[in-house]
Amino acid sequence: MFIRRPTPTMVSPEAALPGRAEPILVNPARHLKLGTDILAPAAHGQFEIFLAAGCYWGVEEIMWDLPGVVTTSVGFMGGFTPNPTYGEVCTGLTGHTETVRVVYSGAEALPLILKTFWECHDPTSLNAQGNDVGTQYRSAIFTTTPEQSRLALDSRAAYDRVLGDAGQSPIVTEIVDAADTTGYFSAEEDHQQYLIKVPNGYRCHTKTGMACPMPGAGPLAGL
């Protein structure tokens, strides 16, 4: 007998957990792959973008290997609870989605970052990626520059046409100015570069299998 799972719904600000004033991650270790400060502000000529594509362990691993990426970290964004813990976010009562902060050098790195984002998960899946179900797994891009917003919106529209022509559902990815959120809250130290610490750890990549039509378009192998 098939049992349909209820669709998760977003918690209201009034019902969200209270959180705390103090950051969860203080004095983090340097990036285990890149050797960089994972929370340093973007320097001159660098930019930051925040990407939510399901479980952040596997998404971070994909992003840190891209050309031009300076550093990555994992945390939470798009919700209401200040400085939440991982456990609190997993209750669905903070409103946040698992998010990867990506700092990159040079605007030319952005198209591949966005292309990789679209292709490494299923952006048509609402509040779920595979067996990971909940608003904390919703697809989202949080932008920090007008160019990021423009390219994110244009690439979403182009990819939506590709998926629609293949008979797939519409994209549900949110594209939001990071300044219009409550901010990015870093996760605990043991979640940072998790798949270096736990090489055989959990990865979730529920992809559409379709290429996003951007520079260098083509299926991303090995994800």
Automatic annotation (TrEMBL):
One MF annotation (Gene Ontology) recorded for this entry: L-methionine:thioredoxin-disulfide S-oxidoreductase activity
Active site (UniProt): C55
Enzyme Commission number: 1.8.4.11
Catalytic activity from the UniProt record: [thioredoxin]-disulfide + L-methionine + H2O = L-methionine (S)-S-oxide + [thioredoxin]-dithiol; L-methionyl-[protein] + [thioredoxin]-disulfide + H2O = L-methionyl-(S)-S-oxide-[protein] + [thioredoxin]-dithiol
Enzyme class of the recorded protein, top EC level: oxidoreductase
InterPro entries, per the entry: Met_Sox_Rdtase_MsrA_dom, Met_Sox_Rdtase_MsrA_sf, MsrA_MetSO_reductase
GO annotation, biological process: cellular response to oxidative stress
GO CC terms of this entry: cytoplasm
Record's keyword terms, sorted: Oxidoreductase
Pfam families named among the record's database cross-references: PMSR
Domain Peptide methionine sulphoxide reductase MsrA: 49-203
Task of the protein: Has an important function as a repair enzyme for proteins that have been inactivated by oxidation. Catalyzes the reversible oxidation-reduction of methionine sulfoxide in proteins to methionine.
Family: Belongs to the MsrA Met sulfoxide reductase family.
Protein's UniProt name: Peptide methionine sulfoxide reductase MsrA
Organism: Trueperella bernardiae
